[in-house]
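Thanks for the sequence, V.! I ran Integrase right away. Repeating your input here for the record:
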Amino acid sequence: MEESVKDVAPRPTEVPMVEQDVVRQMRVLAEAGWGVKAIAREVGVSRNTVRRYLRHGRAAEVQVRPEARALDAAARERALALWASTAEGNAVVVQALLTQEGHAASVRTVQRAVEGRRQQVRAAQVASVRFDTAPGRQMQVDFGEKKVLLGGVLVKVYLLVAVLSHSRRLFVRAFLNQRGDDWREGIAAAFVHFGGVPLEVLGDNARALVLGRDRDTATVRFHPAYAAFCRDWDVTPRACGPYRARTKGKTESGVKYVKRNALAGRTFESFAGLQAHLAAWMVEADARVHGTTHETPVARFERDEKTALRALPLRALPRREQRLKRRVAHDALVDVDTIRYSVPHRLVREHVEVLVGDADVRIFHGGVEVARHIRGREPHARIIKAEHWQGLWRQQSKEVSGVASAAAPSALNALGRSLADYERAIAGGVKRGAA
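Predicted structure:
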């Protein structure tokens, strides 16, 4: 069925652009008396194109481009003021505000007007001045994470890295999480590794360390547990400014160094093997020539920083006392960072509180301790006490291969029979069937 003319939408006509020299040639040929068909064949365009350019005369020869819009000096100053205040660095908002004030300009025009100021602000944000921290003054800490093959299983490992700001000595320890207790245990282990305590610890704004900031007074609200930990160790906590990770650039670089050098693509048989590798690697890292100081960190530490650190506490301070809420699974186990601990099976589906200490794990139900285990270190391990599962299975028979134990006679003896009688009957039935 043929379509009617009315049903067919008109197609837009593409108008080709013709060079000015060609247009002039068409006019000269037309003045010389050439026809439209001959001119079209001569200059290589269609007859309609020749007719259109000849019909419009010289107006078709000149293409007038609109002038590029620009802000005058007053509007430009206003745009810069809005960009730095109300618009908070957003050129789209500046354009909308200028339009409301009667200054017509596109977003691109505004962007060109504020580009210089934008570059100045960006340079000020990323620029930094390197300074040498006094010996014993500061230790920087940070967490990184990397997936590592442990015993053939890909496990996400969290790496706490601590760096003494003056000597650049480095400490690293692997964890299975990065909760507040992991931060505190890692920082305390770094103090012990370095053999002393610096004046301050600079960290980032992790929730385990920092609860918030007061912008008006520029004060930091540290997590109560972390603040108490720092009081116990007599060290001042500090946090770098938001989005200013370069403030703790030494440990930022240290995290990258650990990932790319200590771990790279290595595999380990166990989590304990990983920790042993990191302990040996730290000795190598301290003996390398540092790219900034051009000295080995251990030499710089022995000469300048070792005596500047304050002494460790005489008595061991608790590093962690992590309290977690868990629900007992159907197999009478509770999970803490992929490690599962057993509880009495009567507590299946009950809610319990798990207290993770430095060396042990205690589990409470209703305020009463119901289980205690040595703290596991290997991911996906199961720490089980057999008495917690007692009563879950039937007692196994003490008869082996049809011979009853004298201490525990079979119940068949009371009926005057034994398993041997049934074996002989079955054997006889098999022989008769075979015959």
